[in-house]
Write a structure and sequence with these properties.
The complex is a heterodimer. By secondary structure, chain A is mainly alpha-helical. Chain A has 11 helices and 4 strands; from the N terminus they run ααααβββααααβααα. In chain A, helix 1 runs parallel beside helix 5 and helix 5 crosses helix 6. The longest helix of chain A has 30 residues. Chain B is α/β, with parallel strands linked by helices. A 7-stranded mixed beta sheet of chain B has the order 7-6-8-9-10-13-14, sandwiched between helices. A 5-stranded parallel beta sheet of chain B has the order 2-1-3-4-5, sandwiched between helices. Chain B has a two-stranded antiparallel ribbon with strand order 11-12. In chain B, helix 5 crosses helix 6. Classes of the chains: A mainly alpha, B alpha/beta.
């Protein structure tokens, strides 16, 4: 029974990693850049929810819903703005490293901005999910509301993204941009607009992930997104970066491995084990679990 | 990515350190010119004019000012009381304090200023790093130093330095004793931060001390600074092992997360923390109901009902307008401990600083002091105190004495 409890905890942590990894992998898959500031978009989303739901605390569920919606919208705008100011001018730059370094700069900028505005003190985040959850077997096995909601939301997001990319015109445009920017432009696709949309969706996912992350682990600080961001990046690489179902699988595997290695091996070594698995997977299958081998055209 | 972050942060850190060092050398020279009048010299009225001169050092300005002011105010209060009651061995006591702004170099400057003033005995410094820096000088000068609150192990590495508070790792021993003496639990779980020397040091001493106690450690689980969000495994293991008390030798930020997660999984043991837990009630938006019943080891609870504490809190509040904290209690005790030690060896102020130090070093291992922080304190020659640990418990969002 306790194994099941650990497994469910792992699923819960894994689904949060998965939602963050979906944002990473989308942006990478389409814009071909690693947005290392993604973890900090999560932090911004959390602070927005914290501030708004604090101001609307008398309004019950409505206040929370408004806070989450505003946070999603603001994060999308933040993603679009960041892309426009910091990444777009560098897209044609000689070295792809330029954008990578800029992304790290944006990450530090956001963290320090939050330090100035909100201070370094830890704040306690009130969960956006008030549902207590369900228990089985006479209370021996308890699944928390936030766990169930997290798993369901991550599945819904996965399905929606798959439908969006494969069935809509915009999604097809994204695929075309991912394949070949130059050819996509020739086919009449507005590359800049498409990438902007990608960033908007990716950042909206960061806001959702933030709401769930801070509901499950309610300590809010300017660095709240940093470590989950890195773990989710690992998840995305593990699943095959650029692949949407891969990010989902990578996230879940990572969460479960982390919790189970903490439980059965050592609570200190769990990170070493998680990153060790990444190394092994990449040696055996360099493109990740679901990654496709792309032939570079010469 | 991790590597990138590390490289960048290493670079930034080194840049910051250089900047700080550059900043430090400059004020050093200005600080010596800052030899203001001895801040609070108490009037001397002894027969032959000789007085004991006691100095105190602490951060009176800046981020840690709350600690330094508590120490310096409480020491001043103790000196005034002693003078009003006839002084030490018939001699009045003069008192002076200096600001070190939580900076080790400035603490040494403050020490030199006090030495020029004629200080014979030092109460301080308030914080560990400053105390360690000053102890190099007191050792060279052979001046007796009693730090009220310097808790790092190295603070008392010289034989002329003693302390009032427990050292960091000794909080582990004290916690184990307290839990055993008060029969708080039979099965104990530990959750500690293995990436932090403070936390792992306490945990190690606690585990050693617990071996021959009336409780059993059933789970000991670590986390690291990079992995301080999910505590479900550590809590679940403690729960499965049947721990009825969970020892948390960690800072309050992580502790607030642990309390929240324990609540969602319906696990309600006694949580027992050390001084790092102090502050949990001030986490913004934290539901203090979750901390109900949390115990923490601390030498002083301002609401205790014994005469000594009641009088101290009343006088302190009248004079300084705030409720004294544990730092104030440590410093108040420090002055009375010095008094007792001076009396034990019939020391007079006309003796040299070095002779006073030798006398006090001998006296410290012989006396048995009683004060706010403990009814019975003795000292090892190493400078470490032996005393009964005390705890407070959180009730209705406030710290209350656990006795």
């Amino acid at each position: 029974m306790s194994f099941l409890t650990y497994l469910i905890n792992g699923l819960s942590l894994g689904s949060i990693y998965a939602i963050i990894a979906l944002g990473y992998t989308m942006v990478y898959g389409i814009a071909k850049m690693l947005n290392f500031a993604h973890g900090d978009f999560i932090m911004v989303g959390c602070y927005v929810i914290f501030s708004i739901s604090g101001a609307l605390s008398g309004n019950g569920v409505m206040g929370t819903v408004i806070a989450v919606v505003v946070s999603i919208v603001l994060c999308s705008l933040l993603g679009i703005t960041t892309e426009f100011i910091a990444y777009r001018p560098l897209r044609g730059a000689a070295s792809p490293l330029a954008v990578l370094i800029t992304a790290i700069g944006v990450s530090y900028f956001l963290e320090n901005l939050a330090l100035i505005i909100f201070g370094a003190d830890v704040k306690s985040f009130s969960s956006v999910i008030t549902w207590k959850g369900i228990s089985f077997a006479g209370g021996q096995l308890k699944i928390q509301g936030v766990t169930i909601v997290t798993i369901v939301i991550s599945l819904v997001i996965l399905i929606c993204l798959q439908l969006f990319i494969n069935k809509t015109k915009q999604g097809q445009a994204m695929l075309a941009v991912a394949e070949d920017k130059g050819a996509a432009t020739l086919m009449g696709i507005n590359v800049n607009k498409t990438i902007m949309l990608t960033f908007a969706i990716g950042s909206a996912l960061a806001a959702i992930a933030g709401a769930l992350l801070c509901s499950a682990y309610p300590n809010l600080s300017p660095y709240v997104g940093a470590m989950p961001g890195i773990k989710a990046f690992v998840a995305a690489v593990l699943g095959g970066i650029g692949s949407i179902p891969g990010a989902m699988i990578g996230g879940l595997v990572l969460g479960i491995v982390e919790i189970l290695s903490k439980t059965y091996i050592s609570s200190q070594l769990s990170d070493a084990i998680v990153f060790g698995i990444l190394v092994i997977v990449l040696i055996v299958k360099p493109t990740g679990i679901l990654g496709k081998v792309i032939q570079e055209k010469v | 990515m991790k590597k990138f972050n590390k490289v960048i942060s290493a670079f930034m850190t080194s840049a910051m350190v250089t900047a700080m060092l550059a900043g430090c050398t400059d004020p050093a020279s200005t600080a010596t010119t800052n030899s203001q009048e001895p801040a609070q010299a108490t009037e001397s009225s002894s027969d032959n004019g000789a007085t004991f001169k006691i100095g105190a050092i602490g951060p009176l300005t800046g981020g840690a000012a709350v600690y330094g002011n508590a120490v310096c105010n409480a020491a001043e209060l103790a000196v005034e009381e002693i003078n009003a009651a006839g002084g030490i061995n018939g001699y009045q006591v003069e008192y002076s304090k200096e600001d070190d702004e939580l900076n080790a170099e400035k603490s040494v400057n403050a020490y030199n200023t006090l030495k020029d003033w004629g200080m014979q005995i030092l109460v301080g410094s308030t914080t560990s790093a400053c105390s360690i820096a000053v102890s190099e000088n007191t050792k060279a000068d052979n001046m007796f130093q009693l730090t009220p609150s310097g808790s790092a192990e190295e603070c008392v590495k010289y034989d002329n330095v003693f302390r009032v508070c427990f050292s960091d790792p000794n909080q582990g021993i004290a916690s184990a004793q307290y839990i055993a003496d008060h029969n708080l639990a039979t099965k104990v779980g530990i959750i500690y931060d293995s990436s932090d020397v403070y936390s792992s040091g306490i945990c190690q001493k606690f585990t050693e001390e617990a071996k021959d106690k009336n409780f059993e450690i059933v789970s000991s689980e670590a986390f690291t600074a990079d992995n301080a969000t999910d505590f479900s495994v550590q809590l679940q293991k403690a729960k499965d092992a049947g721990a009825d008390l969970v020892f948390l030798p960690i800072y309050y930020q992580a502790a607030s997360l642990i309390l929240t997660q324990a609540n969602t999984m319906d696990y309600k043991p006694v949580f027992f923390g050390v001084d790092g837990m102090d502050g949990i009630l001030s986490v913004e938006n934290f539901d203090t109901k979750l901390a109900e019943g949390v115990m923490l080891l601390t030498p002083f609870a301002a609401d205790a009902k014994d005469d000594l504490t009641v009088n101290f809190v009343k006088n302190y509040q009248e004079k300084y307008g705030e409720v004294p904290n544990q730092f104030a209690a440590d410093a108040y005790d420090a002055v009375y401990i010095i008094k007792q030690a001076l009396e034990a060896k019939s020391v007079t102020p006309d003796m040299s600083t070095s002779d006073i130090c030798e006398a006090l070093k001998g006296a410290m291992t012989e006396i048995e002091a009683s004060g706010l922080t403990s009814a019975k304190m003795t000292w090892e020659a190493s400078g470490e105190p032996n005393k009964e640990p005390k705890a407070v418990v959180i009730k209705e969002g406030a710290y209350v004495s656990a006795e």
